[in-house]
């Protein structure tokens, strides 16, 4: 059965396009507080679970051994915009482990954010691996490998201890068996494992509540989540959706985008986690639905704050002459 | 009922995302040769019917009065990439009518094509209205207005004769009543009218076959279509899908993209037209499905040529390190 339409794009008096999706809002015990669509089909979480992948950076002691700052921990969980500050911070993380950008295996790409890419071009520069939106996560992987005395070369491979540790954390938090049938290769060359939305939401619910997870692991996850909430720019970039969502409720909402229309998050104060995926993989829809799901979570606890997220879930569309022509809006019925 | 999934995006052994859509392949008599999904719900055609909107440029005699070349006629039907040659050609069209870029009411935007936008930034430039992907169409509108002795100011408004002539052509070709209930504002500020996919496909079928339309109108439409097929770069840009589709079968296939996942086209030799829309408005899917629909049209007439379009309907996805990670592929069942 098709997932329901949860985001509509209007123009004039017509719904021009629409996005089908599923989402799960789950507590630490695994109880589904609210959901729509199929939340049991395995989907790739892509970058939306960088916090899970970052936990070994804390658990191995690498973060403390290298004295990583909170902005650096946020960058380790980031899909950043490749702005100058992001690039500098990633280089500093690598330097703390005695490394430089040549060891990165994430590949190069122009920053996704068009104004940032144009600024780089205007200065006559081209992107390096440090501009890759995942360079902070990779710097974290590499810090961990060096701290553990492991070979850095090939750290993106499934068999490398870096990826095996990340996989073990994801399995523990989701409670889902990550076998080779559900493995793909992510944009930045590391393995990505598919699991149900319900399982990813439960994983974030565990970290948010501390339930059903070892206290040290919960503490590691909450330390990363706190770093991201305190440093949303380091975790995303200027004007990005993750930044806007976390700035709308400082310290109360963690939200992280992933490729192909995935979004995950946590509300530590409520002990809840969420995960969503737009069937068609569109970011405009995942960002809009993330705001709406956060509003659902907050509704009965803080209606005023919920209203702030309702507003973020209804964006005006304008043409090149700035005339209002329609809207992108969540429609959770 | 939900439209069927017609485009799949795979990663590893999983279908990561999918796109639902409808399409209609129709002849000049209005007979549906092949279709999937709902082809009767009105949708905005956006830029996919620029050929319809360009017909008054021929019919009023403006194109001949100003001696517009075939590349200029292709640009009048273009969603171009804002490359230097496009910008120069649009300025030349305006100059032929004694105008310059200050009369354009389409607004400015950075070229959608990222490398083109970065080239502009690298030279320290910013986009003008001539870089707007619709500047050629607007130049055509303005040539027509000047030739007819009309005020150029406000030519984008629904009440202006330029838009009334375009609307009359669209109504004639689609056979659909374009009332205010189906009107929205397009990105470039002109009105856009919703009609069923079947009607748009029929309109292109009429132009392709010459059936059911006044001979002068059919001739005007075919002149524009021929100009586009002969000058696909002027009608799109370097590496764009419209260019690739038309270059795959020179003189046999006309194909034109539109915003929000619309694609229209014609096969003049077969007397067929097609129209499609991806429900979620995604361009990667509309480009892929367009290739597949053209393959369907060609299958029994020219299997080898059809195979060329089947190949265009199955694109390998690679990560930043150029490793194959999946595919975007049409799945018409």
Description:
The structure is a homodimer of 333-residue chains. Helices cover 41% and strands 20% of the residues of chain A. Chain A has 333 residues and is of the alpha+beta class. Chain A has a single domain, classed as Beta-lactamase. In chain A, strands 1, 2, 3, 8, 9, 10, 11 and 12 form an eight-stranded antiparallel sheet that branches. In chain A, strands 4-7 form a two-stranded antiparallel sheet. In chain A, a hairpin with a 4-residue loop joins strand 9 and strand 10 (272-278). In chain A, helix 1 crosses helix 7 (161-174) and helix 8 (197-209) crosses helix 9 (215-230). The longest helix of chain A is centred in the C-terminal third of the chain and has 16 residues, at 215-230. Chain A is globular, with a radius of gyration of 19 Å. Chain A starts with a strand and ends with a strand. Chains A and B meet through strand 2, strand 4, helix 5 and strand 5 of A and strand 2, strand 4, helix 5 and strand 5 of B.
């Amino acid at each position: 059965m098709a997932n329901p339409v949860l985001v509509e794009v209007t123009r004039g008096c017509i719904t021009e396009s629409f996005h089908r999706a599923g989402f799960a809002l789950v507590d630490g015990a695994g109880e589904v507080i609210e959901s729509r669509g199929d939340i049991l089909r395995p989907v790739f979480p892509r970058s939306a679970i960088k916090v899970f992948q970052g936990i070994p950076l804390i658990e191995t002691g690498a973060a403390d051994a290298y004295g990583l700052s909170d902005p650096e921990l946020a960058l380790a969980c980031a899909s950043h915009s490749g702005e100058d500050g992001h690039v500098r911070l990633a280089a500093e993380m690598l330097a703390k482990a005695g490394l430089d950008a040549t060891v990165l295996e994430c590949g190069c790409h122009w920053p996704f954010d068009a104004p940032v890419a144009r600024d780089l071009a205007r200065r006559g520069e081209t992107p390096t691996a440090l501009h890759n939106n995942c360079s902070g996560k990779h710097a974290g992987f590499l810090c961990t490998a060096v701290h553990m005395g492991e070979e850095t070369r090939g750290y993106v491979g499934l068999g490398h201890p870096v990826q095996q540790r990340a996989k073990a954390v994801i399995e523990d938090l989701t409670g889902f068996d990550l076998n080779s049938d559900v493995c793909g290769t992510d944009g930045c060359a590391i393995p990505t494992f598919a699991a149900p939305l319900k399982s990813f939401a439960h994983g974030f619910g565990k970290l948010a509540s501390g339930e059903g997870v070892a206290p040290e692991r919960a503490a590691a996850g909450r330390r990363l989540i706190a770093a991201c909430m305190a440093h949303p720019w380091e975790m995303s970039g200027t004007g990005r959706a993750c930044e806007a969502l976390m700035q709308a409720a400082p310290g109360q909402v963690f939200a992280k985008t992933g490729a192909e229309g995935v979004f995950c998050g946590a509300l530590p104060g409520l002990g809840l986690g969420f995960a969503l995926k737009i069937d068609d993989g569109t970011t405009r829809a995942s960002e809009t639905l993330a705001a709406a799901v956060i509003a659902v979570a907050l509704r009965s606890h803080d209606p005023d704050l919920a209203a702030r997220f309702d507003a973020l879930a209804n964006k005006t569309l304008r043409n090149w002459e700035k005339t209002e022509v329609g809207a992108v809006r969540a429609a959770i019925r």
